[in-house]
Amino acid sequence: MKRHPEPLWNRVLVKLKQTEKKSAGGIIIETDVQASKSRYATQEAYIVELGAQAFKETGTHPPVEPGDLVKIVKYSGENDTTVEDGEIYQIVNDVDVISKLRGEGLND
Length: 108
Known about the structure:
Elements: E1 11-16, E2 21-22, E3 28-29, H1 31-36, E4 42-50, E5 69-73, E6 81-84, E7 87-93, E8 97-101
Antiparallel strand pairs: 1-4, 1-7, 2-3, 4-5, 5-8, 6-7
């Protein structure tokens, strides 16, 4: 049975998208190296679960739902991450979800 932390209040549980790129010579470049090149580093993640108060400040329906692929602030969230079966889960604040990537979610 898979266990992961349940987000409370305005927190969001995400599963980090793990990608790798290869250089022209075939060398694998880690995602962290790619992100560190950006002044405002972001990373892609899938929404797993929303806390009860996530995105409630807008007063409307949450702009994301479980399964959506989003961009989050790279160094956001708790220092505590959970690793299950090679997947990395992290809890972030709802304000650290900065965009939704259309057509690339888990449910698409």
